[in-house]
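Q: I'm writing up a methods section and want to include an example of the input and output format. Could you take the sequence below and give the corresponding predicted structure tokens, formatted cleanly so I can copy it straight into the document?
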Amino acid sequence: QVQLVESGGGLVRPGGSLTISCTASSKLANIDVVTMGWYRQAPGKQRELVATHTTGRSPNYAESAKGRFTISRPTYKAAVDLQMNSLKPEDTAVYYCNAYVNRIGTTIWTTYWGQGTQVTVSS
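A: Here is the clean output for your methods example:
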């Protein structure tokens, strides 16, 4: 019902920068994309929070992302970017876009996930 499309992943050298983006689209009317964020999953590890952005609140970052990553959402658009600086090999993972959506006027809240985009940090 809500599709999340990620872009911008790729290969980058340690210390480099990369921005990944996600756009939400839906045929549903009257929805509010309240929170959008990024999670990542490295091989053999559980999926973990990277950063989230909730309307009207300060962004939330994992400790590993603080000071290096910046999450942003364009005004009046169901999209989210993650700018990643000073990348390390341990940042290598599949990065998944996440959206927490409310059907306006109801108590229906739904979480959606994108397909993921690979980020590889290697020399």
